[in-house]
Amino acid sequence: MGDSHGIIKRYKFWIRIYNAIERPSEESPRASSGGRSGSENVGLSNASIFTDIDLSTDFRLSILTNSQMRLAKLDELRQAAKIEVEMRFRKKRAELKTKVEMRVLLILKAYKQRRATLKERTSQSLLRRMARESKYKERVCTAICQKRVAAEKKRLALLETEKIRVRARVLEV
């Protein structure tokens, strides 16, 4: 809406300039009545032109000022948006960093638990193996002892039979 107002003002300004330029060529009714000479009429129109030029300069300066104010406001908005984006970026980055750290901690915890479980399984496996080996050794030792006892009995039986044979010979003689 402000832009259409400016267009209308510029249009009116150029119409005034055009009219001011065209007026000196026409005879004004006052000039024909003898009130003023033609040079006075041109002087007045020149003064009107200079007034219009001064007004147009003021108008241009106000447009320039308004434009600069708009640009300054846009720059402030841009800066505010930039700061807001940077703050959101930092916040999001901090959130992601926290999430990553939590995930890393969970992964490390799971890894430690897996290692502890594996270590426990290995420990249990070694204990079972040692128990099996211990039982096996015990069985082997028992079997060896039994064989020794059997061999000893057999040797004693052979000695006993030899003793009986020797006694029988001695009695025969």
From TrEMBL:
GO biological process, one term: signal transduction
Protein name: Uncharacterized protein
Similarity annotation: Belongs to the TCP11 family.
Lineage, top ranks: Eukaryota, Viridiplantae, Streptophyta, Embryophyta, Tracheophyta
Origin superkingdom: Eukaryota
InterPro entries according to UniProt: Tcp11
